[in-house]
Amino acid sequence: MRARLTAAFVVLVAGLATASSTAGGVSGSSSVRSKATGWAEKQNGMAEAGTSNCGPKIDRWQRDMGLEVPPCRVWCGAFVHQAFRRAGVQLSSRLIDPHRSYQDAAANRRGLRAIPIGKIARGDIVFYKFREGLLASHMAIARGRPSGGKLDTVEGNTSHAVRLERRGTKYIVLAARVTGDA
Q1: Does residue 70 have a cis bond before it (omega within 30 degrees)?
Q2: Does any domain span residue 20?
């Protein structure tokens, strides 16, 4: 009887540890964010086919989100989604749309939590507004903390490729931290 109770306790504790890691515990940790960023940085220079928003990797990233391909879509969100997927976090397929993802982050839902721009750290998501009529039209992953009014990022779908960028923080409309699966 005692052996059964001990075994049940071990299973219960293991289950709780797993639930914690997928509900905002370990999956939102700085090590997960750093792992996502490291994978993203290694993609630097990976380009779409021409100016199509398509390509073998991009198409796979969108399929990994549960989306049908074609059509080819703006893929900055698919890139961010894939980076966190590689780090063990499954975010919402709504990440394909920066405008909708901005709304999720601002409302602290779907595994995203809005943070002050001054608190940005490696692996946080930053949103930019380059088109009128949208809350956000582009997103990127921070490679570190803001410094001197600038932030180093890794971005998908920038000039048709993955690029390491350095942008002014004045262009950021929202920053978000991944807190767990969505």
Answers
A1: yes
A2: no
32-65: pLDDT as tens digits: 999 999 999 999 999 999 999 999 999 999 999 9
CA proximity to 160, closest of 50, 82, 78, 63:
50
Specify if 3 maps to a domain. no
Note whether residue 13 is domain-resident.
no
Q: How many CB atoms lie within 10 A of CB 159?
A: 10
- CA 71 to chain CA centroid, nearest Å: 22
pLDDT band per the 50, 70, 90 thresholds, residue 28: low
Q: Whose CA is closest to 82, among 104, 108, 60?
A: 60
In the prediction, which pLDDT does 39 show?
98
- Tell whether 166 is covered by a domain: yes
Q: Work out the number of other CB atoms within 10 angstroms of the CB of residue 80.
A: 27
> Residue 48: which CATH number?
3.90.1720.10
Range of the domain at 142: 27-178
What integer pLDDT is reported at residue 30 of this predicted model?
86
Q: What DSSP state is assigned to residue 72?
A: P
